[in-house]
Structure formats: C-alpha cells, structure tokens
Amino acid sequence: MVQIENSPLARPLSGLQQANLVFEYLAEGGITRMTVIYFQPSGTQRIEPVRSARPVTLRLQRAYHGVLFFSGANIKVLQAIQQQNIPALTEGSDGGVYFQRDPARHAPHNLTTNGDRLAQGLSKYAPRISYKLPAPGQPAASPPPAPANHIQFDQTSFHRVIYSYSAGDGAYAYSTVDGPLLDRDTGQALKPVNVVLVQVPHHDAGFTDVLGAPAVDFDLQGSGPADVFTQGHRYTATWNLANPDLPLKLLGSDGREMHLPQGLTWVHLVDPGTTIAAS
Hints:
about 280 residues, globular
C-alpha cells in the first residue's frame, strides 16, 4: 500500500497503471491523495511520488492488511501506526532499501519506489491474509444499467474529475480541468477499467497535518451509497465496511457482492449527495 501525492506539482504520476486498486480522497485544501494497492508487486518501474500517510490510510490498512509505504505523517498518525503495530516502511527503514530519490524531480515530490522494492518489504513484513477478494466477472445486468461513456463530478471544490470511456481500451481515461491525468511512463492518461464513487462523510480529525493544515478523516465504516462505472455503464450499488478488518465490499441492487472486470479499479471517496453527470 503506497501513499501517492496528487498535487499539480506531483504530476505526472508513475506506476499507478500497474496497481490493482486506488483509493483517492481529500487530503487538504481541495487536493487529493491516493492509497495505491498492489497485491503482487514486481518490476523496476518507478512508483512516485510517495508522500505522507493520512488518518483514512490507517482505516484502509486495517481493511486490506497491507504493508504501508509512505513518507512521514502527523505525530498522531505515527503514534497510531506504532500503537496498532502496523507494518509501515519509510525512507529510512532498513537502511533505505525501499526508496530512492528521483533526480528529475524536486523535493518533496521526488521520493520513489518500485514493485521489486515493495515485494522486498512484503517478504519481510507482510501480515497473514486470510480474506479472499471476489473473482473477476461482470455485474448483474438486472436492472439494466444506464449508459455511462462520459462521467464528470467534483471530488473536491478544486478537483473536478472527468472520465471518458474507450471501448477499444475497455477503460476510462482520467482527466481533470487541466487535462489528462498522465502516466509518466506512457505519456497517456491513466485508464482504470472500473471507476467507483463511494459516498462517505469526512470530518476534521482534530489535529493538523505535517504542513499545519487541518487533517481530514472519513467515516469509512458501516455502509452507504455507491456508483460503479464499468464497460461504459453505470450501476447503482452499496458500499459495505461493516467489518473494519475486511476489504470494502460493493453490493449490487440484488444485495449480492458485485464482480467487476479484471483490471485497475479506482475508488473515489466523495461527499454524500455529490452530483454525478453521466451519459
């Protein structure tokens, strides 16, 4: 589980197209951050820029039981990591073998890792995982899903997200008002196969982040409404995290767990009632 920055100074991003799952959420000042999950990382392709952990990061780690790769955090978050015995690796861990600095970027937007380094950390620190993820598949077609080749919503007051579906790619190209959210390695937009909007309230965490801004946490527990976009269609769903020690579930209108096509799944945590334009 890697913490990735998404400020304008952090772009273009690297290594996210190879991930299995991305959670994107408000960090501060309208800027989002990502917790990027790789179930079987490998390879030397850079993953960057790595930044700080946030309160919701710990909720996601508890659900997925991953090793956290990050660069610093507020003292409250660091204390929680220690108290909860979360396996967490920073630039100084084990003599610095898990990270390096990218000379083509300016600090603090230049901390990088790669799949082989993640795998090295997992081999040493990964907790035992007993859960099984749902097998790849197709969502139930009843009721018939609505067309959704174009999607637009405001994740924050400063971050408008725009997706365009390509049947040729079988994926949605991610853009903002500033243009495509580029993958540095391909020079093209990041292209998740599945896009999920989870409606969940957030609140002031009661302390400031490493830069002095109010920290944000999310009420990511219980259940709530969700929208799932895949293969050019929109499905109404319910997210469920009734058990905080198991991965987030997506339930279809029939109440059964949804199966999604194999590939990168991008989950946006958005405010309840967020307006979603899809056509």
